[in-house]
């Protein structure tokens, strides 16, 4: 039992638990900076070598690839105990339910989430989120789509599939597991502000309950990918035309 607890802390420590700590520090930095929260920006998917597009592309792809290593680590641990990680997480084979359910989830969460972001920013609880800061190059949209898929796989495997499975094995109650997963999801979004924490925590409750009901993270990955693709690519394409996004 103690070994399993240590494993959970280590997996989180090299993945989204680490992100949560940095996110808290980032929020503290923003709250103690000059100017209100809603006049500060949280930038995502930024250029890493603006003057050298091919080097920038290389950095972007490497960042996406290495961000998935904790997923392989979590799957490795699940394969060792109890075994059959893909089946355990519902990743054994794609099903129509994964795509249809994921699309429905994205639609149900997307518009309320956008509304919560807008209201939170207007009330001063959120920063201005800039989801895409890549230069105008041919590979920008494909990289943004890959980044969306990477975020989805990383978060849903670690925060839902792995964490929920391990906490249930540690005899945590279902409500405690759902709350822990949701709070972790909200915490690593705190760099965007308090509204982002609330919105993502609510999303975390929904996603954890869906996984506990169907034992498949496929719909969650599909939903998360769609939400991020719309946010990343939509911002890159429409930001100049929809000034309220900025």
End-to-end CA span: 48 Å
Number of strands: 2
Helix content: 55-70%
Radius of gyration: 18 Å
Strand order of the largest sheet: 1-2
Report on the structure:
This protein is an all-alpha fold. α2 packs across α8 (about 175-185), α7 runs antiparallel to α8 and α7 (about 140-170) packs across α9. It has helices at about 1-15, 15-30, 55-65, 70-80, 85-90, 95-120, 140-170, 175-185, 195-215, 220-240, and strands at about 40-45, 130. The model has no long low-confidence stretch (mean pLDDT about 95). The protein has one domain (about 1-245). The termini are far apart. It has a two-stranded parallel sheet with strand order 1-2.
Summarize the helices and strands and which ones pair or pack.
Blueprint: H1 2-13, H2 16-31, E1 41-43, H3 53-67, H4 69-80, H5 85-88, H6 96-122, E2 128-130, H7 140-169, H8 174-187, H9 194-214, H10 218-238
Quick recap:
With 246 residues, this protein is mainly alpha-helical. It has one domain. It contains 10 helices and 2 strands.
Features:
single chain, 246 residues, mainly alpha, two-stranded parallel sheet, 2 strands, 70% helix, globular
């Amino acid at each position: 039992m103690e070994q399993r607890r240590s494993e959970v802390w280590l997996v989180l420590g090299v993945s989204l638990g680490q992100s949560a700590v940095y996110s808290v520090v980032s929020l503290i930095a923003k709250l103690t900076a000059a100017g209100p929260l809603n006049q500060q920006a949280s930038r995502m998917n930024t250029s890493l070598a603006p003057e050298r597009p091919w080097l920038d592309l290389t950095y972007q792809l490497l960042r996406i690839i290495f961000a998935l290593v904790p997923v392989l680590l979590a799957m490795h641990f699940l394969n060792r105990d109890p075994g059959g990680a893909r089946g355990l997480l519902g990743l054994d084979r794609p099903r129509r339910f994964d795509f249809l359910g994921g699309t429905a989830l994205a639609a149900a969460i997307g518009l309320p989430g956008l509304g919560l972001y807008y209201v939170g920013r207007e009330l001063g609880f959120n920063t201005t989120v800039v989801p895409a800061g890549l230069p105008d190059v041919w590979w920008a949209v494909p990289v943004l789509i890959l980044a969306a898929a990477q975020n989805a796989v990383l978060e849903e495997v670690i925060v839902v599939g792995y964490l929920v499975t391990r906490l249930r094995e540690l005899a945590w109650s279902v409500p405690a597991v759902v709350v822990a997963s949701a709070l972790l999801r909200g915490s690593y979004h705190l760099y965007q502000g308090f509204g982002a924490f609330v919105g993502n925590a609510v999303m975390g409750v929904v996603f954890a309950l869906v996984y506990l009901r169907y034992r498949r993270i496929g719909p969650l990955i599909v939903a998360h990918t769609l939400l991020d693709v719309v946010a990343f690519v939509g911002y890159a394409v429409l930001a100049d035309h929809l000034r309220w996004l900025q």
